[in-house]
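Morning F.,

Quick status update on the modeling queue. The single chain you submitted on Monday has been processed. Sequence for confirmation:
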Amino acid sequence: MKNVALVLSIACAICVSAARAQEPGGSHADGGPVHVQMHNVMYHFTDHVAVHLINVGGNLVPTSASGIPVFDDKNSFKLQITAAEMTMDPQSLANVLNTHVFGAKDAPLKDISITIDKDRLKVKGKLHQKGDIGFETEGQLSATADGKIRLHAEKIRALHLPVKGMMDLFGLDIADLIKNGKVRGVQVEKDDLILDPGEILPAPKISGKITDIHLEGNNIVQIFGEPTKYPWIKVAAQNYMAYRGNRLQFGKLLMTDTDLVLIDPVPKDPSTSTWTVTKTSSWQVTARPHHLSG
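Structure tokens below.
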């Protein structure tokens, strides 16, 4: 979201005086979470890791000493998800594993690639600590009881190595690195690889319980909580991000009792959006970022 604040800095500069004029004199909300609701937004954690947020409901929870989520600082808050549906393509997941999870020089896995074939997730790569020999696994995804991602390996192959399961393939190597704090968000249980989305993704950190995960076409679909039972707020837009309540810093604008909506007036492609920024009906400014980025 850092780039969002930068590309909308002109809008913030224009709006700051109008917004402050509406604030009650001497009234400031206590530091705390800001409610967030998003629909049909392509969020870029990095240039190579993108997630399509179909629906997201939850809170921005401040992590900084100020107690205020700051758009310019993606480490100043975490996204606490109550209910959501989002998708990620296999290439983005492979990029997460290569750069964020197994990016260290002594990581046991290298050059990971991921594809989807007939409702199966195929993972290929190299076993770095075994002379960079190639390996390949194929299996199904499911949600664990505590809301993480389970990849159950049905087929495991490695060149010139007898392999009985995930633990036999690279479990001990990963277990040692987890103990040393060099690999986070990954565990191995017999023939299963367990991924914690709250740990493997770059900042801003997310938290929430995955209740379902499955494959649709070339996408990995993740369901958090119970979206069908969540009290969604009605917003008259197709692509939007809405923030309400408490304090939120957006560029130079510090809002109390936040009421901010970012709307895409041309919603054909959320990855190349034109966003309109509104705060209630008192002011409206248009800005044109090339995409929504982290």
